[in-house]
Model the fold of this input.
Amino acid sequence: MFQSIPTTLALLTASALSFAWPPPSWSPHPHGPPPTWQQHGNHHHHDDELAYPRQRGPDYDYTSFTQDQQSRADAIIAQFRFAWSGYYTHAYPHDDLLPKNNSFSDSRNGWGLLMFDALDTAIIMEQKDIVDIILDFIPTVDFSRNNAEPVQEDGVENAVSTSLFETTIRYLGGMLGAYDLLKGPFGHLGVEEGKVDALLSQAGSLADAVKSAFDTPTGIPVNLQHLSDLTGNPEYGDLAQKAESYWFNGDEIWPGLTGGNFSVQTGEIQDQYGGWTSGNDSAYEYLIKMYVYDPERYQNYSERWQAAADSTIAHLIGHPSSRPDLTMAGAFDGNMVENYTEQLACFIGGNFILGATVLDRSDYMDYGLAFSEFCANGYRYAASGIGPIEYSWNTTLLASNFTNQTSLYENAGWFIPDNTAYHNGQAPEAVESWYYAYQVTGDQYWRDVAWAYTLAQNRTERVGSGFSSVNDVLVESGNGTQNFMASYMLAEVLKYEYLIQKPFGGMYDVEFGKGNENSFVYNTEAHPFRVRAKEPV
Ligand SMILES: *[C@@H]1O[C@H](CO)[C@@H](O)[C@H](O)[C@H]1NC(C)=O
Ligand SMILES: *[C@@H]1O[C@H](CO)[C@@H](O)[C@H](O)[C@H]1NC(C)=O
Ligand SMILES: *[C@@H]1O[C@H](CO)[C@@H](O)[C@H](O)[C@H]1NC(C)=O
Ligand SMILES: *[C@@H]1O[C@H](CO)[C@@H](O)[C@H](O)[C@H]1NC(C)=O
Ligand SMILES: *[C@@H]1O[C@H](CO)[C@@H](O)[C@H](O)[C@H]1NC(C)=O
Ligand SMILES: *[C@@H]1O[C@H](CO)[C@@H](O)[C@H](O)[C@H]1NC(C)=O
Ligand SMILES: *[C@@H]1O[C@H](CO)[C@@H](O)[C@H](O)[C@H]1NC(C)=O
Ligand SMILES: *[C@@H]1O[C@H](CO)[C@@H](O)[C@H](O)[C@H]1NC(C)=O
Ligand SMILES: *[C@@H]1O[C@H](CO)[C@@H](O)[C@H](O)[C@H]1NC(C)=O
Ligand SMILES: *[C@@H]1O[C@H](CO)[C@@H](O)[C@H](O)[C@H]1NC(C)=O
Done:
């Protein structure tokens, strides 16, 4: 019942900021398109065999990667179709595929979670046959019934109630994102209008069926606000704002930064642990996304986000002693900063980049790119090519408990501070940040970083009829896999991997074009919503 965040970190003085990662300072609103890799590639001064200068560095070599972006995009579509086909053959219409033994589970009420999560990815990839199957299915769901077998968790019956809010926002986000795309930039797919409108009416039915679950202080209000804006019913957005106000009023450790372990029931903040991974969904992440969604209504969210970002820069920045070139924000316990972060925090790069462009802050851009690089380095130094779940650069802890990772730390700048947390594999946060980094810099390097992850996943995680996380990211083969394909592998990972590689842009991209336009805002589950500030779709 309590959402809590793990703790860890180290306080750095402002002087350490001079180590900030070396990209040339970014300037807001360039008077032209961002430099593209082709432009760089025309200057073969020193190294004629490289297609572009950053294709090889001291610790990586991307020269073997195909430069044909269409073939990269097609390969990702092929992976998406493989995952879909495994699900459709063996798990439809349940929530999840267990790919090793062609079985299924119902982790989210048994309403067909994977289909709702995969729908807008199928739209963006223009896989019309898959879109049609899902659109035919969605109107058949009765959200007033829980189709899942109640499961026992820690002796407590889990059924629907404990995570109803988290469940609901996934289904809602999937329907609203698909609706906006089909009414807007993917109208040319020619989907029957009645089927598109059914998405909105089913979203309303779901919201009405589980309304009581919204009355909590957690979650991502953008889903609910958007439902209100599309249906004209203010009730959902009001619930979201009420919930948010609990968190706004919590005790601050530093301006804008509060503890993250709060009671879902009362909204009370239980302690002073915090960081950019608080709870299930980072509250900080959607403060700036709400502002992008509707800058007039959510001006004070942007002020709160800036306070959090400024306090992060002032108090939380760390550089591993073995790799002072790397920069990351740590977590905090009261005003003690810990040399620790998590895979879940890897979205911070993209979030700072988004804040930089909408608020015209070049310092946020420099940090956003540096944070994105911290996670790129994490994937690079895990032998499997899959980054770890937890990162520590605490040398006291290394020396006392984790000496068998000393050589990893010397090279990588991180070690895994938990011998039971070597698994990982379907995480979207890092590739989300690389996508924002590519969009604002046009630097092919970020595409290559993402492509390395795509290849690593295809090599180590393809098992049976789908994908599953590996057991050990520090072993090249992954040392075997688990038996669960997460719906967010299709909703988030494959979506961001595709968006960064596709050879053309669209108004559904983040940071689109010369002006870095955000006509869509991607929520925490990577469902794109048309922003309120622009012309209605
Ligand atoms: C969060 O607060 C609750 C209630 O005080 C406590 O039981 C729980 O252990 C805390 N979680 C963490 C990670 O500290
Ligand atoms: C934001 O500002 C509005 C209008 O000034 C106010 O009603 C609302 O309570 C504020 N929200 C928060 C979370 O502070
Ligand atoms: C939220 O966090 C709790 C506690 O860590 C976890 O049990 C639950 O599965 C998480 N929910 C989601 C949607 O990730
Ligand atoms: C390092 O780890 C030790 C042992 O867990 C902890 O007491 C200390 O606070 C940590 N320090 C930092 C800076 O993370
Ligand atoms: C934490 O990291 C900082 C550099 O960011 C370093 O100066 C400090 O010694 C580290 N502390 C520990 C316990 O590793
Ligand atoms: C590290 O080792 C100490 C002493 O053996 C132990 O008390 C502590 O729980 C360990 N910490 C971790 C994170 O494993
Ligand atoms: C380090 O030792 C622990 C405990 O024996 C083990 O679980 C872990 O796999 C080892 N890690 C490495 C990188 O060898
Ligand atoms: C992914 O794996 C499949 C099966 O091994 C293979 O046919 C395909 O070429 C791989 N894709 C890429 C991009 O390597
Ligand atoms: C792989 O996992 C098995 C246990 O399933 C273990 O015995 C073996 O040592 C691991 N291999 C490597 C290279 O870590
Ligand atoms: C498939 O494997 C899972 C464990 O990963 C197990 O719980 C389930 O019962 C298996 N299903 C079938 C049909 O064998």
In short: Confidence is low (pLDDT under 50) at residues 1-47, 152-162. The two ends are 39 Å apart (CA to CA).
